[in-house]
Fold this sequence. Notes:
Radius of gyration: 35 Å
Distance between the termini: 143 Å
Order of helices and strands: HHEEHHEEEHHHEEHE
Number of helices: 8
Low-confidence stretches: 1-5, 23-32
Strand order of the largest sheet: 3-4-5
Shape: elongated
Amino acid sequence: MGKIKMNKKGIFFTFIAITMMIVFIILFTQQPDLSLTRNSNGVLVRISSIDDYIDDLEKSYLKTALQTSSYKAIFSLIEYEKGGAYLADFNESFFEVASNGTIEDPYGSGIHVLIDTITGKKIMENSTMENWTKSISDTASSTFNINTTIKINNITALQSNPWEIDITLDANITVASNVAKWKKRSMIQTSIPIEGLSDPYFLVNTNGAYDNKIKKSSVIFNQWNISKAREHLRNGTYVHWQNSQAPSFIMRFTNSINPSECCGIESLVNPNKLAIPDNIESYTDYLFWTSAYSSRCIELYNITYPGGNPPYTGGLWDEFQYFKMDFDSLVRYNISQDSQNDALRTC
């Protein structure tokens, strides 16, 4: 009997000991693990939210800022060229104006001034990339309690199609918080349309007197005729030809009147908008101010019905007297050089 009682007593004490051990494990082991898990989850959430912020920073905030600053920089450079001088280096001037709103004037002097003081228009005020990146950094600090540093390395502009300018921002981005630090080099791209912008080539060559805004012609390449050419001339529209011999929009800022096969655009010079309407030149815009035909009038054609005196009943001289074209332009616009029709040799 005594032996049986000792076994029951031993079992009881053993049960008590196991129970106490479980209590100690719960009290001193499990609770710290729960706290660590909560802290870990909090850090992961924090890191995830900052990752989302950096993604938005590149794909939304900086892209929008780049598009706005770039468009205003192009607009400012157009206003600058109304003074009658071409840019020496388009991308160099564009980068400076877009990033901080200044321009070297005169070029090569080492003197950099706010472009708004030259144009007399507050276009870049509070609209440069430096303005935008500071605003983004201040907002991120107050909203997310993180420090954002954006160092602009370069902003470039080029064209891969006739009607848009491709913009690329090269920047170093650093984002620091109380949990981690992110550093990366980012290439952010956007594009801006050129339609509605003034053609700098017209402005420089007329000291701002002839403002021709870019507007794309709706005429299909094989549907041109003298009636369509009349509307083209009347409305100051632009056309891109395959294998174009015309310069791109960007090239017009620097008087680089060379062929741009991908992006060349051309318009026709309206003689009614010139101080001296009668010039021995092809009135195709990129040729008109080059004096390419000033001593070669035999290669030019008056786009007029042959005959003597006004009023003219054919061609274009009834509305655009003195308008002339070179032979290649006649072919492109499908205007007849037959003496019984639309075009007659100038001399």
